[in-house]
Specification:
Elements lengths: L1 H12 L2 E6 L5 E3 L4 H7 L8 H15 L1 E8 L5 E7 L4 E5 L5 E6 L5 E5 L3 E5 L11 H4 L1 H19 L6 E4 L6 H14 L16 E4 L4 H4 L1 H16 L14 H30 L9 E5 L9 H13 L5 H7 L55
Helix pairs in contact: 1-3, 5-8
């Protein structure tokens, strides 16, 4: 549950933006396009963008597939996106070989949607069409983890004490034996586990069993967390397994989480958006992209150093720097200029000083004095 929630929340909490490519390179946010609001804010009247994507990402992680119906208006433009339950959707091909989706409604009826009206994000699969369910593939590992949970609940519910044997040298009737055992269990389990026991009538108590440290119970639980991390491609520290983790390594692990865990899911989403939601004639112009800069910001000192280097080399303007730091631009447009160091020149530019460090003439290369004035010899 934690692994699925971790990835689903990370993916859905990232801003999803619609961009327009600019002539000559670059991009800008296409906030004037109706699709921008559907992707960034409200995919349908009942859900925010985060709730919609969180739900579908959870479907994708557990069922292996995420489906949403694409509702279109009279102009054949995308009007809304509605989640579909994965167990109620079946991809199939018609007699002509075209892909379609058979939808089973809650009332038992069914309907068929063409491929263009179903947003389908598949996970890893055999045929590239339908993804595998991670839960089904990892059922043995998950079953072992559940067994550890059941054992732990019983073990600690009984006071984390090994089982034992109550014995009596005399012959005791069965009913009396059962009553004594129940009374003993009630008096020395759960919240009463640390109370001092008193035996009479010849009864003795002999503990048996394996102590938890010998059974490596806690180590087994940690191992199960690492198993979940392997199945979902989550760094161990994200699941609470922090062996030999330092502050610096955790920061690198966080970057690794974004690059290797989150990014593949984001690429799947963005590809399906581009394929199903953007008309073919506008695919060279529009594209959807998640903004992951917030997850890769790092600590303040490292971030400031990196941004300063970009600013000093003319990569960022002051306003762009302030936008990254979630600050308003400088008024009157004074923060939109780019700067560069004065001592940098292109490699192929002619030299401006001689070997002695004196300025060379600037009169088109003609010889002269240090100020570039013609001398009597070449006047």
């Amino acid at each position: 549950w934690f692994g699925v929630r971790l990835i689903s929340e990370a993916v859905s909490s990232l801003p999803l933006l619609l961009y327009r490519r600019l002539r000559g390179g670059g991009k800008e946010r296409a906030t004037d396009d109706p699709l921008y609001e559907i992707l960034h804010d409200l995919p349908n009247p009942e859900m925010t963008s985060m709730v919609f994507r969180e739900t579908l990402q959870a479907h994708l992680l557990t069922w292996g597939n995420a489906y949403a119906e694409i509702q279109r208006d009279g102009a054949d433009q995308v009007a809304a996106l509605w989640p579909l339950l994965p167990n109620a959707v079946k991809p199939e091909r018609d007699s002509s070989g075209y892909l379609r989706y058979l939808i089973r409604n809650q009332d038992g009826s069914s309907r068929t949607l063409p491929m263009r009206n179903v947003l389908h994000i598949p996970g890893l699969g055999f045929d590239g069409l339908v993804g595998y369910s991670v839960v089904q593939m990892a059922r043995q590992s998950i079953g072992m983890g559940l067994a550890c949970e059941r054992f732990g609940a019983t073990f600690f519910g009984n006071g984390a004490k090994p089982s034992g044997v109550l014995s009596n040298p005399a012959v005791v009737p069965q009913k009396q034996r059962e009553e004594f055992r129940e009374a003993w269990t009630k008096a020395h389990s759960g919240d009463n586990s640390n109370k001092t026991g008193v035996l009479w009538g010849g009864w003795t108590y002999t503990p048996i069993g394996i102590p938890p440290e010998d059974a490596q119970f806690l180590e087994s639980r940690a191992f199960q967390r690492e198993e979940v991390g392997l199945w979902l491609n989550i760094p161990p520290f994200k699941l609470g397994v922090s062996k030999a983790a330092t502050y610096a390594s955790v920061e690198q692990f966080a970057v690794d989480f974004v690059v290797h865990t989150i990014r593949p899911w984001l690429v799947r989403w963005e590809g399906e958006y581009w394929r199903k939601l953007i008309p073919a004639e506008r695919r060279r112009e529009l594209f959807a992209e998640h903004l992951v800069d917030g997850l890769l910001r790092g600590d303040l000192a490292s971030r400031t150093t990196a941004l300063a280097q970009q600013f000093l080399n003319g990569v960022l303007s002051q306003d762009e720097w302030r936008e990254i730091e979630n600050r308003n631009p400088i008024p009157d447009g004074y923060g939109q200029r780019y700067y560069r160091p004065l001592n940098l020149t292109p490699v192929d530019a002619p030299p401006t000083v001689d070997r002695a460090g004196d300025p060379l003439p600037t009169n088109g290369g003609m010889p002269g004095d240090k100020q570039g004035n013609p001398t009597p010899d070449n006047a």
